[in-house]
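Course assignment 3, question 2. Fill in each field.
Student: A.L.
Task: Predict the tertiary structure for the chain below.
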Amino acid sequence: MKKLFFVLLLMMACTATFAQTSNEDYFIGNWTLSVEGLPTGDKEMLLIILKNEEGQLEGGFGRMDGSEFAELTDIIIKDNSLQVFFDVKGFHVSMNLSRKDDGTVTGSIMDMFDCKATKIEEKKE
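Answer field:
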């Protein structure tokens, strides 16, 4: 009975680990982020999520040309959602995005500004 319990526990742990990895893999990459209703008008930006050499998530976002880039201070991936934090003009800001379908996420910045992001597919050589 103990062996059966141990095997079931091990299987659940493996499943949870695989699910976390696949969710991370989904969000890692470059995204075209559209934000609506900002005081300066609607904006299209580049959002980058990557995993560094130590296996930690990091990234940032800014203009599509790479200028005015803000570093993400914290990145949380849970279930099918991504929550990131960043500092802009002296404010600590959060953005929540949820998986809509393959390659698309929707959400908001500070629950005030609607946003949608589309994953930029890497060209395979």
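Instructor remarks: Confidence is low (pLDDT under 50) at residues 4-21. The radius of gyration is 17 Å.
Grade: pending
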